[in-house]
Amino acid sequence: MLTSLAGWSLRPGPLHRRLAEALRGAIDRGEIVPGTRLPAERALARMLAVSRGTVVAAYAALRREGIVESRQGSGTYVVRRGEADRRPAGPLPAGRIRRSLGVAALVAGADGAIDLTAATVPADGLLSDEVVAAALADPQVARGNGYAPLGITSLRRAIAAHLSSEGLATAEEQVLVTSGAQQAIGLVASLLCGRGDHVAIESPSFPGAIDVLAGLGARAVPIPVGQGGARVDVLREAALDLPLRLVYLIPTYQNPTGTVLPEDARREVARLAGDLDLPVIDDRTTAELVVEGTPPPPIGAFAPDAPVLTIGSMSKLFWGGLRIGWVRASEPLVARLAQLKVVADLSSSAVSQALAAVLLPRASKVRAMRRRQIAAASSLLARLLGEQLPDWSWTMPSGGLTLWAKLPRGDAEELAQVALRHGVVVLPGPTASPEYEHRDFVRLPLLREPEVLEEGIGRLAAAWRSYEPGAVPAPRTVLSVVV
Q1: Residue 193: C-alpha distances to residues 97, 189, 216, 477 (Å)
Q2: Rg from Cα positions in the chain
Q3: Residue 477 CA, distance from chain mean position
Q4: Can you give 132-185 as a three-state secondary structure string?
Q5: pLDDT per residue as tens digits for the range 8-49
Q6: What is the pLDDT of residue 470?
Q7: What's the pLDDT at 81?
C-alpha cells in the first residue's frame, strides 16, 4: 500500500485531497484492485504519519465519487470499475513490483526534494571530445548499419579482455552485450525460469532483480546476508531441498549491504553450480567500486565449466546514463540469450557500445578516481550520521555505492513517508527485500556532493525527530529547495 502511495504528500492542496488523489491514481493503475479492503482509518493514519481526520476526509471524498464503499462493521472497500478491471484476470506476480519511493516520488513531481535513493556516479568529464571522436570512428558506427544483436566487435573484445584480467578467462564469443545490467538480469531469468519456479536470491537484494522475478511470477527463495555476504550454508540447503532453477547473487559489494563474499564461499557456490547443474548469476555491477582491499575473483573463475553467468555494467563505474551491460556465459547459452534479446531489442545502441569500448580499457584509472570520491563522501556521511542520527547503526563497506543503515525502532516505510514531507527521498528496507522484510533498515547512497549529503542528512534527521515513536509530530509542510 505505501509503495503505491509513494510521493502522495508532495502534491499540491490540502493533505486529505492529496491522499485521495494518490489512492484514486493507485486504483486507476490497477495497483489497488477492486474488492480490496483498504486499511482502517487509524492504521493508515499511523502508516502515513498523519491525523486520522486526514484519512477520514480522503475516504469520504472517494466514497462521494463512488470509488470506495464502507460496509458496516467490515471496513472500506474499492468498488470502482475502470481500466484495471479490463486487464486479463489472474494472480498478481509473486512479491509485487517494487516501484521505489525515489522513482515514484519523482514521477509524482517531487520538485525540490533531495534524492538519497539512487546508487549512481556522475559522468565527471569521462565523455570527452576525444572519447566521443574515437567512438564515432569505430568501423561498426562509421560504416555499419547500426545493428549488432550480440554487440559490436570492439566492445565484446574489450569486455572479454576486462573479465580475463579479473581472473575469469573469457573469449569474445562468450559475451552478449545488453542495454544495461537490468536487461541482462531479465534475459537470463526469462530464459531459465518462469511462473512458479524457485529462484534463490539474497535478502536484502537489488530491487531491480526482485522486480524481474516478480514480473515472471517466480517464487523467491530468500538467502539471508550476513557480515560475509550471502549465507552459503542456507543456499546449499535450499539447493538440496528445492528444485531451484536459478540463483542470483551480488557477491562483491553487495547491493544494498556492501558485503563481500569470501573466496572459500565463492568456491562453494561454484561447486554447487557444477555439481547440481544449477545456473548462478554473479552480478558484478558494483565489483569495480573498490575503496579498500582487493575482492576475490568472480565466482566463475573457480569452476570454468559450471553454469555461472557473469553480469556487468558500465553504469556504476563510469556513468548511470551509459546504459550498456553484458552477460558472460557459455557460447551455446549466449546464443540462446541473443535469440531472446532480439525479440524485444534488436540491438543495443551502437554509439553507446562504441563509447563503452573506448572507456572500458581505462577502467583502472577510473577506479582510482571513484575510490577517492567514495572514500571522501563515505567519511562525510559517517560523520553526519554520527552527529545527527547517533542512535542509528551501520557498517561502512569497503566498496560499492550503498550504506545499509538500521533504525533503532520504528518502521522504515513510515519514516520514508515523513521524510518526503521534509524534502528528502530515502529507500526503505522492504523495497530491497524479496519477502518484504527489513522494515528497520534504509538504504543510503555513499556518493553524493558534500552539500547534498549535508542538506539531505539534515532533512532526514529532522524527519526522524518528527517520526520517532513518542515524538511530537512536526508541522507537515513540503519543503521546496532547488538542489
Answers
A1: 17, 6, 8, 46
A2: 23
A3: 29
A4: HHHHHCCHHHHCCCCCCCCCCHHHHHHHHHHHHHCCCCCCHHHEEEECCHHHHH
A5: 777 778 888 889 888 988 888 778 888 888 999 888 888 888
A6: 52
A7: 56
